[in-house]
């Protein structure tokens, strides 16, 4: 019996010895040092188990070794342990509080990575309350250690005055230091400073292109897209759509959906490439299927109009709805314009128009106001028409003029009607030109002026407006025969006005270029 116990013990010892021998030689020495309490060796053992370097990956063992070293104040172990605890790896549950404690200990020991990460934690405010002052504090310490990413992010704080007094000069200095170290994001952001200008920095397209190019060479998507926009708009160089397309292609190949959408628009318009609406639809679809709202809206318009794809109102509705649900106001306007034609979806159309109107879109405000008049909801209708008219929507201005001339929903006031008609007429609205002409002819709200009346009738008639042709003809006949004035044909609202975008063929405008920040939060 004793011999059996001894044999089993020897077998167990040999098995352990074999396992130990299976470790790489360097690991065996790390393990021996770690077991004797050396914190750096313990940290290295934690790293090996976390990454599966020389041993089978085991995050629980990684946590154990990191914790041993962290409790001995080893900063790298504190940082690595903090990340595992925050992310909930190698432990039963996430423990952000303990993670932040170890992260702070590492940052206090001047570990740059910990300082930058801690700054990002305070910047985002997800696991601790957002605190810009604390973010600035740790970014400053990391930047003082020469960390280019921290310099870039600290520049944002100085540029916007978040957590520190606003200091554009300091922001530019930090961006330049980081950019000269080769940080691509800082290079792109410095390019933006020169392209857009900042307090104390004069717009310099040549410098902007230089920094964008350096960032683009490192694969920075934002810089590639910016170079595309500069080439397209001719900023610092003659406009070159072909060069713009090259940069947009590079950005799109890296997944930039704005650039993908812009490629669709260029193919649709024939800029940089021969016009190809089928290719435009393909480009829009690639971005729309990933949720890009402008691409979805523009694809919907192609389906609505049968350009590049067969006419398909079901598909048009589908893609407009994708854009509208993502909050795109043009998608909302186009969706509502289709929904309103069906009595079963008319109320939904009002809801969708209202969503766009609440985003301060004058075309939606104007159309919503008109439809509410049809439903005799006059008070709200006047509110929306006024908001649109104040933003120079000509249809809304004309329709407000009709209300003031007729006294519907507002106190009758021909003089105010004339003011609204004139604003719309000068913007080229044919109905308003006719209506203003009628007031001038009759001296209604304005002094009578037959010459001016004739001029406005002619402008509207030249646009094919039938009632203006009738009024102009009657006025000419009156003059020719010196007979009394003909009955007034005035107060003509824009009959069921459509929002400007659909009426102009589909809201497939070039993608509005988003304003680039001076810097981005640390990822």
Q: How would you summarize the topology of this molecule?
A:
Layout: H1 2-22, H2 25-35, H3 39-51, H4 59-70, H5 75-87, H6 96-108, H7 112-124, H8 132-144, H9 148-160, H10 168-180, H11 184-196, H12 205-217, H13 221-233, H14 241-253, H15 257-269, H16 277-288, H17 293-305, H18 313-325, H19 329-339, H20 346-357, H21 362-374, H22 378-390, H23 394-406, H24 414-426, H25 430-442, H26 450-462, H27 466-481, H28 500-503
Instruction: Give the overall average pLDDT.
Output: 89
User: What is the C-alpha radius of gyration, as a whole number of Å?
Assistant: 34 Å
Helix content: 55-70%
Give the end-to-end Cα distance, rounded to a whole number of Å: 64 Å
Number of strands: 0
- How would you sum up the major sheet? none
In percent, how much strand structure appears in the residues? under 5%
Low-confidence stretches: 3-21, 492-523
Structural class: mainly alpha
Coarse morphology: elongated
At the third CATH level, what is the topology name of the domain at 392-501? Serine Threonine Protein Phosphatase 5, Tetratricopeptide repeat
Structural features:
about 525 residues; mainly alpha; Serine Threonine Protein Phosphatase 5, Tetratricopeptide repeat
């Amino acid at each position: 019996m004793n011999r059996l116990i001894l044999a089993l013990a020897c077998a167990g010892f040999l098995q352990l010895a074999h396992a130990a021998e299976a470790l790489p030689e360097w690991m065996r020495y790390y393990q021996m040092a770690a077991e004797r309490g050396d914190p750096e060796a313990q940290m290295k053992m934690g790293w090996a188990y976390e990454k599966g370097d020389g041993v089978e990956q085991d995050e629980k063992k990684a946590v154990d070794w990191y914790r041993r070293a962290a409790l001995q104040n080893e900063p790298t172990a504190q940082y690595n342990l903090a990340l595992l605890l925050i992310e909930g790896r190698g432990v039963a549950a996430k423990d952000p509080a303990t993670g932040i404690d170890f992260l702070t200990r590492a940052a206090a020991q001047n570990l740059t990575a910990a300082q930058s990460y801690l700054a990002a934690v305070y910047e985002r405010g997800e696991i601790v309350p957002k605190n810009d002052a604390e973010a600035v504090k740790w970014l400053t310490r990391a930047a003082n250690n020469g960390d280019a990413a921290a310099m870039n992010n600290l520049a944002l704080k100085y540029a916007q005055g978040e957590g520190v007094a606003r200091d554009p000069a300091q922001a530019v200095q930090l961006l330049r230091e980081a950019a000269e170290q080769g940080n691509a994001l800082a290079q792109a952001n410095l390019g933006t400073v020169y392209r857009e200008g900042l307090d104390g920095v004069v717009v310099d397209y040549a410098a902007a292109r230089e920094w964008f190019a350096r960032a683009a060479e490192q694969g920075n998507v934002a810089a590639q897209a910016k170079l595309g926009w500069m080439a397209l708009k001719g900023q610092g160089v003659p406009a070159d759509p072909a060069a713009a397309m090259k940069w947009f292609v590079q950005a799109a190949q890296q997944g930039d959906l704005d650039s993908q959408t812009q490629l669709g628009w260029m193919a649709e318009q024939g800029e940089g490439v021969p016009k190809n609406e089928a290719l435009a639809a393909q480009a829009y679809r690639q971005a729309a299927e990933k949720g890009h709202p402008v691409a979805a809206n523009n694809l919907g318009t192609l389906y609505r109009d049968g350009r590049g794809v067969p006419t398909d109102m079901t598909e048009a509705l589908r893609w407009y709805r994708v854009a509208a649900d993502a909050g795109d106001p043009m998608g909302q306007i186009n969706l509502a314009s289709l929904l309103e034609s069906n009595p079963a979806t008319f109320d939904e159309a009002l809801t969708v128009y209202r969503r766009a109107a609440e985003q301060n879109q004058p075309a939606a405000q104007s159309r919503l106001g008109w439809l509410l008049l049809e439903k005799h909801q006059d008070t709200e209708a006047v509110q929306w028409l006024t908001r649109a008219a104040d933003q120079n929507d000509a249809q809304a201005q004309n329709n407000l003029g009709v209300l003031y001339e007729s006294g519907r929903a507002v106190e009758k006031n021909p003089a105010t009607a004339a003011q609204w008609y004139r604003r719309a007429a000068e913007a080229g609205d044919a109905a308003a030109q006719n209506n203003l002409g009628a007031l001038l002819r009759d001296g209604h709200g304005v002094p009578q002026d037959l010459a001016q009346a004739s001029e406005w009738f002619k402008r509207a008639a030249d646009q094919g407006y039938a009632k203006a042709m009738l009024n102009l003809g009657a006025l000419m006949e009156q003059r020719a025969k010196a007979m009394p004035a003909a009955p007034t044909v005035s107060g003509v609202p824009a009959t069921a006005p459509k929002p400007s975008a659909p009426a102009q063929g589909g809201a497939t405008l070039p993608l509005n270029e988003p304003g680039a920040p001076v810097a981005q939060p640390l990822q």
